[in-house]
Amino acid sequence: MKLSGQSWIVAKSFYISFKNFIIRVISLSWVFSSIYYAFFSRTFIREQRSVIGGLIRHFDDLKNNSSFFLLRRNIHRIEKGLVMPNRRPIFAKEYIGETVDFYIKCVSQSSAEHVPREITWARDVLLSYFNSVDSEPLVNKAKKTFFSLEQKDNVALSVPYSRSEQTTLIPHKDLKLLVNKRKSTRVFLNKTVPRDLVDKALNIAALAPTSCNRQPTHYRIYDEPELVKKMAHLPLGTLGFADNIPMICALTGDLSAYSYERDRHSIYIDGSLSAMLFMLALETVGLASCPLNWAEINELDRKFADTVGIPIHERVIMFIAIGYPDPNGLVAFSEKKDLDLLRSYNKVAKR
Q1: CATH numbers and ranges of domains, the chain
Q2: For the chain, what is the total number of helices (H) and then of strands (E)?
């Protein structure tokens, strides 16, 4: 039954009052909130299943020593040890053995014709590590295993380097020009989006920092018209321009990258860092974009998963509409906060 305008206002007012009462009651105790979300609200049920599914996948990979996520994390931890101003003569001994095991397993999974760049990076960092640390039983054991596969005289290139080697200074005005040029675009030309241009932008997005370099994000891109139509109507806020979107991307995060529930929000942080670079890079190749909010709605999550078949441990972070901007189309001005509202220095909040 569709409510009239006045009825909708009354119903919404009642809902807000009732919700306000409920949340104030459950906020009195974590026990109340646990009972409420366990028995009366299914809001977080898919997130909980995804976190559990991610942990299962993570520990399966850990048991098999076959996780690229774990290899990336441990190699990055070693890199951080190598760049410390007062580097310890022995470090990483607690996990160097498993790191070498991960490395060997991941090498065995790669084809001889194509060795992923991250494998080369892992090898170079391990070479640098074993050439830098002092002798120690656990380190020596891992070193022997590593050099049973690698040559000691290999040249290590993908290793920490001096910041002074980055001599080019990007002018502030150039960056501001690019950022001002990027506007959320909702009017696209009816024109096919070349995949090679999107890939150029993705090469920039790949440079975004991630927690321990795990790189848990994945860009699921759709340009087949029927799939685009289905995808474009899923996010909230696309009513009115969904049928005008020529390409759409679902940015997802893989929760199997983590050992603990506490890290479940890292996919959103890492995904957002990458997405901003991606959208800026799209502007440099003549394309425009519009980030689309993905609300925590179980039914929409289920529809997306049923349509494209993503695993339970992979969560949607956001959608991004992509296309050639219509030069006659309008974009919102979207004034931003004043600087004084945006930041504070050394402010201590009063309780």
Answers
A1: 65-147 (no CATH), 172-323 (3.40.109.10)
A2: 13, 4
Residues contacting 100, CB < 8 A, separation 6+: 126, 142, 145, 146
- Distance between CA atoms of residues 2 and 181, nearest Å: 41
CA 264 – CA 266 distance, rounded (Å): 6
pLDDT at 112 over 70: no
CB crowding 214-228: b at 16 or more within 10 Å, else e: bbbbbbbbbbeeeeb
Instruction: Give pTM, 2 decimals.
Output: 0.88
- Return the C-alpha torsion angle 229, 230, 231, 237, nearest 10: 80
Residues found in the chain: 351
- Token pair 């370099």 is found at 213
Point out which residues pair with 315 in neighbouring strands.
Answer: 253
Place of tokens 């150039």: 174
Q: Mean pLDDT throughout 153-161?
A: 87
CA 289 to chain centre: 18
Query: What pLDDT score was predicted for residue 170?
Result: 86
- The per-residue pLDDT for range 279-295, each reduced to its tens digit, is 999 999 999 999 999 99
Q: How does DSSP classify residue 95?
A: T
* Separation of alpha carbons 282 and 289, rounded Å: 7
- Structure tokens that stand for 349 in this block: 């909040």
Cα–Cα distance for residue pair 13/7, rounded to 1 Å: 10
The model's confidence at residue 44, banded by pLDDT at 50, 70 and 90, is: confident
| Radius of gyration in angstroms for the set of CA atoms belonging to the chain, rounded to a whole number | 25
Strand order in the sheet with 247-254: 217-222, 247-254, 314-323, 288-292
